[in-house]
Automatic annotation (TrEMBL):
Gene3D superfamilies: MFS general substrate transporter like domains (1.20.1250.20). Keywords: Membrane, Sugar transport, Transmembrane, Transmembrane helix, Transport. Pfam families: MFS_1 (PF07690). The chain crosses the membrane at residues 15-34, 40-60, 72-95, 166-183, 222-241, 277-300, 312-335, 399-421. It comes from the Archaea. This is Sugar transporter. The keyword Metal-binding does not apply. The lineage of its organism: Archaea, Methanobacteriati, Methanobacteriota, Stenosarchaea group, Halobacteria. The keyword Membrane applies.
Length: 437
């Protein structure tokens, strides 16, 4: 369908694909949409179910990526994403939402390992794998900038009808399949043709052995546990940004003449209520936060070069956890907290994934990266349940603060007793020399 592409054009097409996987139309209103018919606890259960299914599906879908090809896995991810989004237009209720969450989990697992595996191997084949953090980070930035624009539109559409953002998302995310078809297959899949007996793939038993060898031992074990807990805390915290924004900032925007639904900010947050002005305000807030967060991905390579892998992946999560706690006492700090939460993962993930990629082989790379995602999803499951119960018993702000405190304690223990990303131990030595320079 698409002809040969230059190296520079290849990177541009990768950025285009990253733009199409943005779900900005629904991001600023998704939890409020669910709270129209669900409680915080039910939202937490859905989030936990998604995490549990992701844990179960990560290794098999990573294996699919290594077996069928990374691009094929990513195409399946687009299909399941669009199907799930369309379901929210057509169905309602806890059980239906559970099914749609399952489709969403499958889409995420099909993408989680294959996207980075495709990029790393493509750079190794055609450019330089040392550019992984730089290009991956700018891909994050492109995705975030696209999300920022669509978030404003999504907030506006929600004020007109809560279904409209999902309709827009279905149309936009469907473009991901076109972007993917413009990207080449990795060489090991393009060269083998239809040969199903290629020796550069792992069978299931070999897959388990490779995972155990690479991920359950130094130098990756402590890093995966630390960033896995961090990603889990961030992911659960994101669920409560919308009600937390209404709780902490509702009284302030009311003084500016913005109508807050009856019952006050906390009651409005629990009921998923948002008038047209408040919904648009959430869209603008999310857009601003996402625009700020794009700096994290854009400068990930520069931060890695300045601080080194070890300092970057330890310090950024710790500071983010502190930021989660502060709004419990100072409501206006919620705004910089939201910005910090949105920036932290795009900053840390390219650095951490680059380090992990440096310590695994090309064969089975997608499976190994899926195993990393599985570890944080496993940690996310109990946190999602606990946060939902805590938010119902107290407030969303309190639940988020508890998550930050938990990371400071548990992450501090990992730092004390484990070696997180020792820079002197690498497969090639390239990253160590960069970090030391």
């Amino acid at each position: 369908m698409f002809g040969p592409v230059s190296d520079r054009g290849l990177v541009r097409r990768y950025y285009l694909y990253r733009a199409t996987i943005s779900v900005g139309f629904i991001t600023p209103i998704f939890t409020l949409f669910l709270l129209r018919t669900l409680t915080f606890t039910q939202v937490g259960v859905l989030s936990a179910v998604c995490s549990a299914l992701s844990v179960v599906g990560e290794i098999p879908t990573g294996y699919v990526g290594d077996r069928l090809g990374r691009r094929a896995s990513l195409l399946l991810s687009v299909l399941f994403t669009v199907t799930s989004l369309a379901g929210f237009v057509l169905a309602s209720g806890f059980l239906w939402y559970g099914f749609l969450y399952a489709l969403w989990a499958l889409a995420l697992t099909l993408r989680s390992g294959s996207m980075d595996a495709w990029l790393y191997d493509t750079l190794s084949e055609r450019l330089d794998s040392g550019q992984f953090s730089h290009i991956r980070g700018r891909g994050d930035a492109m995705q975030n900038w696209t999300a920022a624009v669509s978030m404003v539109v999504g907030g506006l559409l929600y004020g007109l009808d809560p279904i409209y953002p999902f309709v827009a998302a279905v149309g936009f995310n469907s473009l991901g399949s076109v972007a993917l078809l413009s990207l080449p297959k990795n060489r090991q899949y393009a060269d083998r043709g239809g040969d199903s007996d290629s020796g550069d793939r792992l069978d299931p038993l070999e897959t388990v052995a490779v995972i155990r060898t690479h991920l359950a031992r130094p130098p990756l074990r402590a890093l995966i546990l630390y960033i896995g807990l961090f990603y889990a805390v961030l992911s659960v915290s994101h669920t409560y940004v919308q009600p937390m924004a209404v709780e902490t900032l509702g009284s302030y925007v009311a003084t500016l003449g913005v109508e807050v639904p009856a019952g006050g900010p906390i009651a409005a947050a629990r009921a998923g209520e948002a008038g047209a002005a408040l919904a648009l305000g959430l869209g603008v807030l999310y857009a601003a936060l996402t625009a700020v967060s794009s700096a994290g991905g854009y400068y990930a390579g520069a931060i890695e070069a300045r601080l080194g892998v070890r300092k970057a992946v330890i310090v950024v999560p710790a500071l983010t956890a502190v930021a989660l706690v502060v709004p419990l006492w100072i409501a206006l700090v919620a705004l910089p907290t939201f910005a910090t939460v949105r920036t932290a993962k795009p900053l840390v993930q390219p650095i951490a994934n680059g380090y992990i990629n440096d310590h695994v082989e090309a064969v089975g790379r997608a499976t190994l990266l899926s195993a990393v995602s599985m570890s944080y999803m496993a940690l996310r499951t109990p946190l999602a349940l606990a946060a939902g119960v805590a938010a119902d018993a107290t407030t969303a702000t309190t639940a988020v603060a508890a998550l930050g405190g938990l990371f400071l304690v548990a992450g501090g223990a990992v730092w004390l007793f484990g070696a997180i990303a020792p820079e002197a131990v690498t497969a090639s030595g390239d990253r160590a020399s960069k970090s030391a320079s």
